[in-house]
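just leaving the lab so this will be short. what follows is a protein written twice so to speak, once as letters and once as structure tokens for the fold. can you read through it and tell me how you think this chain folds. thanks a lot i owe you, the record is right below.

___
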Amino acid sequence: MRKVSTVERKSIQTTKAPAAIGPYSQAIAAGSFVFVSGQMGLKPDGEMAGSGVEEQASQALKNLKAILEEAGSSLANVVKTTVFLADMQDFAVVNAIYAQSFPGGPPARSAVQVARLPKDAKVEIEAIAMLEV
């Protein structure tokens, strides 16, 4: 039988981003990567940043940044994101806001329209990033 190596797995939590609204972690660091759960436009106090996709996308990216920094990483180390949109008509607006967070070369990305997001959010963004070494 082949021996399987174990990788350290650590839950990441910060008060600089909203608490999880279900049974999941804000992020998990495993090996040399951190996997950040989808972030919506919720402020750290749990209130929506605004009703528009601009405010929500900007806040979602602020949340990603705060969680990544807590994990010992940064937006510069993001290798893959997934953007979930409640309405694909918001794609260009979210793209413009997203581009400001990744000016030095954006990560790989998927963007999809979904039927509905938690709390009726307009956008949710999840990320995978390398940890600082």
